[in-house]
Design goal:
The chain is an alpha/beta fold and about 475 residues long. It is about 30% helix and about 25% strand. Strands 1, 2, 3, 4, 5, 6 and 16 form a 7-stranded mixed β-sheet that branches. A 5-stranded antiparallel β-sheet has the order 17-18-21-20-19, sandwiched between helices. A 4-stranded parallel β-sheet has the order 10-9-8-14. Strand 11 and strand 12 form a beta hairpin. The longest helix has 19 residues. The N and C termini lie far apart (about 70 Å). The structure holds flavin-adenine dinucleotide. The site of flavin-adenine dinucleotide has 37 residues, from helix 1, strand 2, helix 2, helix 3 and strand 4.
Length: about 475
């Protein structure tokens, strides 16, 4: 059986859902092929459950950081209630709500594993082994996301190691958890399970956390983790793991000669593209590779305007909001090209995912939170910009002190001296995830500092840190 649609989308995660919705709204037909659950990793095993696990600890800390409210909070987190609340957000993996949304939006859902079968064709293998061929009149959009990469540790494939999947869906709190990794996922999940009562040891191969961020972010997050009782060990790698069949306990050997005993090991050392079985070879691409794209999300190195890739798989900005942003740009580009109008990459156009290069906002929901947008000082200098960085301790801002007793936070602004505009901002502290959007607007808007000084933050809010940063800059 062969069906034809204007657009065939492989992967119904955040990227795939939005690209299908937008192309249909633009008057084209689209179909979504999904092998697992509509909503993708984000809805069931990543962003949503991890934030559901983290939020109760943050709420408790917020109450405890205001004298007067603190006295009203006497207990600890109710782990069972936290896990139950998480399950309400994820429906325990039941995607019927999101699947209904898709079909309600006029987008047929084909369940099964999609593979390219040459140009503009996708073969979908269903659970019963039958193959259905979908033909794309205009475009195929690949949005299969990523899967966890495992570290090179002897025995890691034999102990039932946790990845983000188990660490966001577990029904019980492990007594002792060893986390391998120092990036965002490792730090967030170490925070979540420590808050729920696990004794957590985090093994970090390097000397710092969040190494792609401004150093202040990694330092503040490390301080927070230690304050929560996480044992952070830098410069240490796991070399061998083994599970005792009788007791279920795991031993973790490290390269400094220590042996740790724990109940679960979480590997959070990065992601790899889910492209090994996507039929890439049928169109001259290499199985297992990332899919580089131009700013319209068109896959590069291929003739024709028909193959696009959005979301984590294009390796530009592995975040849900950026997958959706790319999806909006991609759908606009497909619609423009279908209408015979050139949707050339570049510029701040609807079909250009240009913010991927200049203004990717990201938040880490640790305690304290960290959030950033744009370039770090190091990245800006590496890109050849003449920059000046200013920093300010948010603790000194009146609104911050009123917000929480002993508010601790750090703010850093990276200014392109040639153009007089902000190109990067990093914030730490309570509410950093909410505060960062102001910086995103400033970066995308390329607002001159001379104009930004007229954007007056309300008193007494944490946002007054903007005033202090501009004063530190000399305005
Ligand atoms: C623990 C964790 C926490 C995170 N927290 C955040 C956060 O707070 N904020 C944030 O912005 N980002 C967060 N992320 C990142 C976020 O999850 C991803 O950026 C996002 O899910 C990417 O969306 P996507 O559409 O590219 O892929 P996915 O969400 O991975 O969806 C891909 C879909 O494609 C399907 N699929 C794959 N191959 C095929 C095939 N061949 N045929 C059919 N279907 C296929 C899969 O089943 C899946 O449903 C987090 C990630 C992790 C691991």
């Amino acid at each position: 059986m062969e069906d034809a649609y204007d657009v065939v989308v492989v992967g119904g995660g955040p990227g795939g859902e939005v690209v299908a919705d937008r192309t249909v709204r633009a008057g084209l037909t689209a179909v979504v092929v999904e092998a697992g659950a509509v909503g993708g990793e984000c809805s069931y095993r990543a962003c949503v459950p991890s934030k559901a696990l983290l939020r109760p600890g943050a709420a408790l800390e917020a109450a405890r950081s205001v004298d007067g409210a603190r006295q009203a909070v006497t207990g600890t987190l109710d782990a069972a209630a936290v896990l139950a609340r998480r399950d309400r957000f994820t429906a325990r993996g039941d995607d019927s709500g999101q699947a209904d949304w898709l079909t309600g939006a006029g987008i047929p859902l084909v369940r099964g594993h999609g593979r390219l079968a040459g140009a503009r064709r996708v073969d979908v293998t269903g659970a019963d082994g039958t193959v259905r061929t979908l033909r794309a009149r205009r475009a195929v959009v690949l949005s299969p996301g990523t899967e966890p990469a495992l570290p090179q540790v002897e025995g890691i494939d034999r102990i039932g190691v946790w990845t983000n999947r188990q660490a966001t869906t577990a029904d019980a709190v492990p007594g002792r958890l060893v986390v391998i990794g120092g990036g965002v996922v490792a730090c967030e999940l170490a925070t979540a399970w420590r808050s729920l009562g696990s004794a957590v040891t985090q093994l970090v191969r390097g000397r710092a956390l969040l190494t792609d961020w401004e150093p202040c972010a990694g330092e503040e997050v490390a301080r927070g983790l230690t304050g929560l009782g996480v044992t952070l060990r830098f410069g240490v790698s796991a070399t061998r793991v083994a599970r005792d069949e009788a007791t279920g306990a795991v031993t973790v050997e490290t390269d400094d000669g220590t042996v740790l005993a724990c109940d679960e090991v979480l590997a959070a050392v990065g992601r790899r593209p889910r492209t090994a079985d996507l039929g890439l070879d049928t169109v001259g691409l290499t199985a297992g590779d990332w899919l580089p794209v131009d700013d319209t999300c068109r896959v590069t190195g291929l003739d024709g305007d028909w193959l696009y890739a959005v979301g984590d798989v294009n390796h530009r900005a592995p975040l849900t909001h950026m997958a959706k942003y790319q999806a909006r740009a991609c759908a606009a580009a497909i619609a423009e090209r279908a209408a015979g109008r050139p949707a050339d990459p570049g510029g701040w156009r609807a079909w250009s995912a240009r913010a991927d290069h200049a203004a990717v906002p990201q938040a880490v929901f640790t305690r304290p939170e960290a959030a950033s947008v744009g370039l770090t000082e190091r990245a800006a200098r590496a890109a050849g910009l003449t920059v000046r960085a200013v920093e300010y301790r948010t603790d000194d801002v009146a609104g911050a002190a009123l917000h929480a007793d002993g508010y601790r936070g750090h703010a850093k602004l990276v200014v392109d001296e040639t153009r007089g505009v902000v190109v990067g901002c990093t914030l730490t502290g309570p509410m950093a995830s909410e505060l960062i959007h102001t910086a995103t607007v400033a970066v995308v808007g390329e607002v001159p500092l001379e104009r930004l000084r007229h954007a007056v933050p309300a008193f007494p809010t944490v946002s007054e840190v903007w005033l202090r940063l501009l004063e530190a800059y000399g305005l």
